[in-house]
Amino acid sequence: MRNSSAAAVLLLLVLMPALSFAQSAGSQSLLNAFPPWAPLVALAIIIGYSIAGLAYMLSTVFRTPELSVWAKTEVAEVTASASLVLIMLIALSSADAIFAAATGSTPMQASLDFTSQASDKLFNVFVDSMWLSSAIGTLTGAPPQYAGSTSKSAKDINSRIDQMTAKIKDAKPGSAMRMMIFALYAFNINYYPFSGANVFLGHFGTVQSLSLTSAFIAVASNLALDFIRSVAIPLMVPLGLFFSVFSVTRKMGRTLMAFGVGLYLFLPASVLIAKSMYDSAYKPGTNPPEIPEPSNAVSLTKALMQVQMAEIALTIIGSVVSAPTMTAGQLFFLPACIGGAAVQSVACMILAPVCFVIYLFICMFFTRPMFDFGGSMDVSTTLLSSLGVVKAIVLSSILGAGVPAYMYVGMAAPMVPSLIGLVSTYVWGIIPGTVMSPNMLLMVANVANAILAPIANLSGFLSHYYLDQALASKLTDITLDFTPYVLQYAVPVMLIPLIMIIVTVTAIRSISPAIGGEIQILGLSELI
């Protein structure tokens, strides 16, 4: 017993300089955690020494040397457990102090800062990738996997496309179509524009999943580190000391102490190993060098989003402008009929109001039903057709498609008779003497529109061949640039769990038997 006490005092004298250094370096986090332990530590030591003292007294009274030997052994074990805790505190405080003096923060705080920084960066990368895929989606529409359940037949999966093409079949002759789906029924061709980009979206979905998974790993690692900081030293070590004063739970207590020290020291160390790889992504001078965010992805995202916003705004404006055409064409003739009534009622002089009402009545309820052909006079369709041509020109410029100019002319051809028929309707309504006569120019415009509409569809079909090629080339370049840009941040973070398991379990497996704990840690050490 005297030898054990002398060894403990000698150990304290040897480690006192390290303790002084830790305090002078300002590392108080571990030492400040000691006061809450005081009742539990004191109780454990008192109980341990009391049991040993009582056993020694009983051995003297009953003259049982075996009990005396056991009591001396227990005193040595309790003293050793208390010394182990003190050694752990001093060693960990010194390690924190040295690391803080070199880097400005403790290993635990540096690991917490890194995981927080990595999660923020990876979430930002994920958001950027979502903007890019959303921008591509403005051209391609929803990927095929969202068109229906994968367990359904191909016919069910393509139901969305079938529904859209059905709307085109039901359209009036001569009505123009937006640049979404081109259906050439004479050749039995249904073409979904930019369908080739779905391959890119499938790959890009994997990249997005990788960045998001890495972000969640960083968040989970941050939570684990914060939990270990709150539990490892303040709870696991003193609880392990309490268990180690009893012979029946001593091995479990020493193992618990090894867990506390191993988790507090080596869990941050394993994160810092991943941090050393992750930090290279921010340093252009490292090898491999930093991979910047692809500028082509950023520029394409901005350009396509601007086109989409402009299209939405113009569509709303066009719908508002053409609102009178929305009620079965009833109100479309109203401006023309009112204008004609106002001009022709002037000849009636004093009876002008009566003539105005009669002319308006005849125009709205007799002339309009007889000569309203609809297709060429649909302002909304005309505006949307114009918007489709403009959009094709803008996309060709953004993608560098090089679509021949004559294809744009073919796409815009139906707009000419549409505008002629539209203007003639208003002019016809205000020419005196035409109230009961048909608008022949309107009928000619409708026939011309019906002839030119298939040409416009064919031109749009062929122009998308050039646009598809250009988009495929653009997306290939983006894929080659964006994938390594994401991987340089995602891969080091995804290695954190593997490094944690190898380093931490190996460390605990080495510490535990050294202080009298269990060798096998939940069977995991057999895998290392």
Number of domains: 4
Spans with pLDDT under 50 lasting ≥5 residues?
A: 1-31, 143-158, 167-191, 324-329, 373-377, 524-528
Form type = elongated
Mean pLDDT: 72
In order across it, which strands form the biggest sheet?
Answer: 1-2
Count of DSSP strands: 2
Please report which band the strand proportion falls in: under 5%, 5-15%, 15-25%, 25-35%, 35-45% or over 45%.
under 5%
- Secondary-structure element order, N to C: HHHHHHEEHHHHHHHHHH
Give the N-terminus to C-terminus distance in angstroms. 40 Å
How much helical structure, as a percent, in the residues? Answer: over 70%
Number of helices: 16
Question: What structural category do the secondary elements indicate?
Answer: mainly alpha
